[in-house]
């Protein structure tokens, strides 16, 4: 599958508190409302700039901190089709896969805000045609590929009754 | 080949040999959600059961859970509820617990991680919680790790999860702590050394003479903050102190000796001399921005609010230490001191020991057991440009409810002495 979109760039250590601030805890049962505050403490106005099909590109340790799955969930609700980062925090990474949001580990230095990327999820290649840039992202363990392919963990378990390692 | 504590626990629960790097499906001994992550877990559980491979006979929707006695619903984050949306959520969680017969830990009983070790976790258990600080229970030699709501929903439905057996960093701590320096200073030092992502996917094993002598309370503080270096788990071998801790809580029979083999294979080994440590402060806005107090004191950092509590440092041992420092003293003018015991058991014990008389006398406001202002929901939200010194584990921007405020982290001793002095201060000056 090939996805195309525009880049929103972030730095290192973007915490789940920055993605889904605790002060909106009462909105957790109302994800569309919570999504209006996505990343608001890291990049005010992000929600106005982001368009369906865009990508988030960040430095290292994206999603550090709490286990709140609401963080990847609202990023997905904003229309973001994949997150690319040098590295991810473990729980966030797992959560994103579980809700069917591709998270790709790769060198992100050469990707800039506004760049247009083309990502081939099956081949693991990221292209920036204008800049003539081609990047390879680290392959996922098979169980995660399977979960992603089924559209998330709920669908995966519904289909197979358990994990397919 | 020798095994680390993680490899031992997973090998034993699986009934076959595993080593770091293996991806396995494991049986889960305890799983939990809290009031922030529970509603989404329930939603996912219902979806899981609808019409798929897990639905009942004839495709019937069966919303039962795999093992109610191994499932715990904690109401601890926003308690008592500060607003109606959360009251509704909490009612939903109560209803769910009643319908499924899962354990319910009501408001006022305390923070999940404290309640887990007080009443549920035993050495050798595999514990999966929808809360990142689930790693706290590793202090009792359990393999405990945080996951998200959907992962825990699957555990609730099937009793199992998948995981990768982690590589391990051994943190070997020798020497005696100087007066005024404790487990919290050690773990802050370690997080500063490893950095916020330095142990991602790894388990941290804490060992050495200083850890062997350390109380369970101190070990819980160490394991609690393992996730602040990105680690999947923090672990301490079980020993006579673990056994005594379980015995006091009527679970001596559940004691099991679990320790790493002498020839266990570690990815990295860190040697730390506790006698060389000094009180540490994590400065805004990440827990790995750690500096020794001597470097900060000169900067004269005024503090508006001191918060003592949380799953990191809200235990009776912490409150005793704070009371010792505050005895006969008063908080500095302009400093709000807020204290929240980690659990009802801690609360009661502190009442019995007369600790609150001292704390209140010094000017403290005592909150009910729970997370308090740690995650910015209630009980001490900071004003713009205010500075807080907290004994919690995180100081991210906006963590305590206001992105325009700043949070410093320290030990309870440093926090108490800072409340007295009104600015970041060195607890070694108390004597
Ligand atoms: S005290 Fe703070 S860190 Fe601990 S569980 Fe509660 S909110 Fe999380």
- What is the overall pLDDT average of chain A? 95
How many distinct folded domains of chain B? Answer: 3
Low-pLDDT parts of chain A are none
Give the topology string of chain A: H per helix, E per strand.
EHHHEHEHEEEEHH
Proportion in β-strands of chain B: 15-25%
Strand order of the largest sheet of chain B: 4-3-2-5-6
How many whole angstroms does the radius of gyration of chain B measure?
Answer: 21 Å
Protein model, in words:
The complex is a heterodimer of chains A (165) and B (431). By secondary structure, chain A is of the alpha/beta class. Chain A has helices at 16-19, 31-34, 46-49, 70-77, 90-98, 142-149, 153-160, and strands spanning 2-9, 55-58, 82-85, 103-105, 116-120, 125-128, 133-136. Chain A has a single domain (2-138), classed as Aconitase, domain 4, CATH 3.20.19.10. Chain A is built from seven helices and seven strands, in the order βαααβαβαββββαα. Chain A has a seven-stranded mixed sheet. The longest helix of chain A has 9 residues, at 90-98. Chain A starts with a strand and ends in a 5-residue tail after the last helix. The model of chain B has no long low-confidence stretch (mean pLDDT 96). Chain B contains 15 helices and 18 strands. Chain B has helices at 5-14, 38-49, 84-100, 112-119, 149-158, 183-194, 209-212, 216-224, 240-248, 293-297, 310-313, 316-326, 344-352, 355-361, 412-421, and strands at residues 23-27, 30-34, 71-74, 103-105, 126-129, 143-146, 160-164, 168-174, 203-207, 233-235, 268-273, 280-282, 290-292, 305-308, 336-339, 365-366, 387-390, 406-409. The chains are: A alpha/beta (165), B alpha/beta (431). At the A-B interface, helix 5 and helix 7 of A face strand 1, helix 2, helix 3, helix 5 and strand 7 of B. Residues 77, 111, 113, 131, 133, 310-311, 371, 374-375, 392-393 of chain B line the site of iron/sulfur cluster (SF4).
